[in-house]
Amino acid sequence: MKAYTLLKQGLTKRQIGILAVAVAVPIVIGFLIFAFMTVQTETKANDEAPQGLNIVPVDGQTATVSWNTGTDTLATVEYGTEPNPDSFVKFAFSDTPTTNHNLQIDKLTPGTTYYFRVRVGDNVYDNEGQLWSFTTPGGDTISPSPTPSIEISGEGEPEATAEGTIIPVPTTASPSAGLTAVPTPTGPTPTTNPNVTPTSTIGVCQSTNCTTIKANLGTSCTTQDYVRCLYTPTSTTPVPTAVPATSAPTPTGNALDPALKELCMLTFMQPNSCGSWIWDDIETKVEACREVFTRYFIQCKSTSWESTDPAIWYCNDIKTSNTATVPCSTEPTPNPLQSVFCRVRAEDEVGGAAHATAWTYGGPARCPTSTPTSTPTPTATNTPTPTPTP
Amino acid sequence: MRRFFVMFLIFIYLMPATTYALESTLSFEPVTQSAQAGQEITIDINIHSDNQEIASSDIWLQYPTRLLEFKKSETKPGSLFTSVDAKVMDDFIYLYGIQTNPLATKPTNGTIATLTFMTKTAGNAEFRFICDPSTSMSSQIIRNDAAFTNIINCELTQAHTAAVAINDGSVLGVSDEAKSPLTYTVGGSIIFVLCAFFIISYIRTHHRSA
Question: In this prediction, does ipTM exceed 0.85?
Fold first, then answer.
């Protein structure tokens, strides 16, 4: 309002005119760009639309899908055994841009009906929401015909033909004659194909064991599941029933419950520099962890933990805080450009592997060139010095 | 008054660029390259989070296995995430990057990882991101917020492709560069800024002469 008043009172006619032009120019240019992109996209989509789609089962395990396009395109056939695109996790795609697509789908199960759609770039051609389908010969549905039969279904009467031609139009055309419409369900459908990767995130992906989720990344879990597990405050993490929340450490007792060790495992270890390391605080864990695990055991050396080469040790120490400075005590200082590898675990008052979580690894951290040169230990070996645990 | 007028003009012209910039995408680097069959090539997988704190990213890549062989052991993590790994899933590559320290998430712009491929035979190979939230195999960029929101812009991400021209003999040309909507936007923004500059210059010149 103030701006309007200022404009009304203070601007000359010439300035108002310039202002109007200034506002109009970006709008007009933006509109022209938008229109250009829209027309270009539609033209491109029309050229990329599959024409004369044809399905030929080669045998019970292989089928060929072919079609033509008006321009060279790369294309993908997404397929599965359920008439639900959400369950499509198998693909066949063209290697090089072409107008004559001929994709072979293999590793199929004999006697099984498959549903598919075609993707070209951002555009999906799914027969207007009604997926194409075919049934591989074999199993209980072996075709007596010398030519492998395809079961392509449409809105009309079923028509079995090996050379059934489909002319798909991405969004506007109805299914061609001879095809049976296979309605696409709106919700997810349970998948029975053993080849299909399970898409459900229920179960392992909602586990409180972050390590398990990480092991399933790319198959059933995503990093979203993992960071949700990793970042969520541990106060809400359920405590395993086998471990009493108030269980106190027993200095001379038996080994700790594996479930508790897994629950309390440190989730990260990170270098601020090659001489400064930090890991997650056991105090942020659930009460069962805080009661049992009271300290950390940290080790650092010059080679990776998989390496069997002789190493210089920079730390082999017990800590009560979740930070460490390397070298920890009398060990040598890492040389400039030296890589430092560290690992840490939480321990109870007894210590040792049976009374500690699994290792959490960090690094490597490369030392800067300005790090003071130290005298390396010439007789260092890969065997860590005795653990200063009781 | 004149100052307000000039500021208002600048605001009008810069507004489109600032609003469109709020997008998170993945991209390849380089966009085009050429190699001879039997030669190794590398390609960077980049992320642009536009000043948003990123917890992790899932990347699904499509590439022609007939032309390229993925060298998993030669995958080089970038400096953005503390945990990076790649898996071969049938004809696809699943790559992930995770910031394992919740306190260390930060705006993330740069390389997630550098992938290495061995070229097999002559042909034009294309890399594409798979990004379709309706499927389980979809690239994601997870923001560090309460809901761990997937903030990837699939339209822009899918527009970012990379092409490799593999030759049997001498190295020839390269493929066309993909034009993403971002290209048009950046170009449009530059035009806007130039227009603003000329208009403001005109006003100032006119004011002095008056």
Answer: no
